[in-house]
Structures are given as structure tokens and as C-alpha cells.
Amino acid sequence: MPVLQILSDLHLESPQAYDIFQIPPKAPYLALLGDIGYATKHEGEYYNFLRQQLARFRVVFLVLGNHEPWHSNWDVTRARMRHFEHVIKGVRENTCNEGAGNRNNTPGTALGKFVLLDQTRYDIQEEGDADVTILGCTLFSRVPLESLDDVSFGLQDFYKTDDWTVEKHNARFEEELAWLNAQVSALRSENRRVVIFTHYSPTLDKRAVDPKHGTSRIQAGFSTDLRGQLCWESECVKLWAFGHTHFNCDFVDEKTQTRVLAHQRGYYSNQAKGFDVEKIVEI
What we know:
By secondary structure, this protein is an alpha/beta fold. 27% of the residues lie in helices and 19% in strands.
């Protein structure tokens, strides 16, 4: 069975800790589910951090969180992350061509594979696990009309991300939800086990919501109840991991039998309970 380390919301931007935060490798796959830092403002530091992980893990998955484009915009951030993905692919190909590949991927030698999960499907190719597919996207959330003002004025995203509005946030959510549903629909017929990685939360289950924020007027900016959606209801989805809420959980939804996981560090000065950088997850 595939074994992963799943982390999110490291918030290495404040205080800056890209060069000192360590993730001891306990699994071949590392999934970073957003809010790792500022991907554009701190571009050099952010990419160096990713390279450090690529020297230690076979595959590093990255979902963009809402903090990644702060002090820039979504289009630029996505474009630069795709360029980074392209650069890493080129480095790996050159290493293989030179005969310098290292199957164990030890630091200082070959780099692991970098996968930007931005409406992305990734099929695990390992022997014995070839039926596992990872789907990933930011997801965003559905902000209803009655919460629009609270979320628009209450969240920093709409001040610190250029050219970003609640209307664009909602439109992107609907696009990504439709993509997830379409992907899961196709994968059901392929008889595959599916893992979904998002930054935003797909549930309002009490086990996934910090009791301190259960009645928050801006909760719609963090979570959306996806009950009734194929991507949530389908029996082929075995794990859904997310971030953004700074509240950790790990439970099995009784109806769908999907494991629901959030494993977030949170801000340096206010870290989430239950975070363990060495935690592993088996699919």
C-alpha cells in the first residue's frame, strides 16, 4: 500500500523558516497541501525549500493554498509553479541521461519527481499499488450570498492577492468541483482507488471543524459541505486530505467509508494540536 507524509499550512513565511524547517523522510511520497509560504514574494526561498524535499522524497506533491499567491496573483503564481515543475523535470531527465540516477534519492544526488496538483491526476505506478490515483486541486469554497460581505471584508485573501474577489473565488470553486466530479466519475469505471488532496475543506462535519469557529460568520471562506457530490459520495474515494482550517482531524466518514484527514502545523506562534511532522498515512 502507498505510504505518504501529508502536511499543510507550514506557514514558513512568518517568521521566515524555509531554510531551517526540516521534514524527516518517513515515506517515499510527500504531499504538501498548501500554505507552505509565499510562492511568488519569497520565490527563491520557497523553491529552495521544495528542492530540499525533492532531494529526500521520491515524489513531492504540492497543492497551492490561499497564501501562496499573496503579494502577487493567482495567474503569476500558477505560471511560476508550472515553470518550476518544468525545470525539475529537465534536471531529472539530465541526471538520468548522465547515468547519475539514484533509486534511493539520497540528498545531494538525484531529485525526486515534483507534481503540481492543480486540477491534476497522478497515477501511482509502483508494483502492487498501480490501482491508486491521486487527484489534487486547491478547491476553494462556496461562499453564499448571505456570507459574501463577511467573507469579502473578513479574509485577507481579497486584500493581499491582486485581482481576486469573492466572485472569482466562487467561480474557481465551481470549476474545480466540476473537475473533481468528472474525474471521480471516470475513475469509478476504471476500478481504481482514489485519493483526493485539496487545500480547502470539503466538509462541515463537527470532527473537522474547530469548535471555536463552529458558528463563525466567515466559515464559508474555509469549508464547504460536499455531501451529495459524487466526489464526496463515491465509494472509490478512499482518502480525502485537506488543510486551511488549522484544525487537525483523522476519521472515517460512516456513510462513504472515506478517511478524512487534516494534518496542519498552523502559524509558528499558534500551532495546531496534534501536528507531527513524521506522521505517515497508508492508503
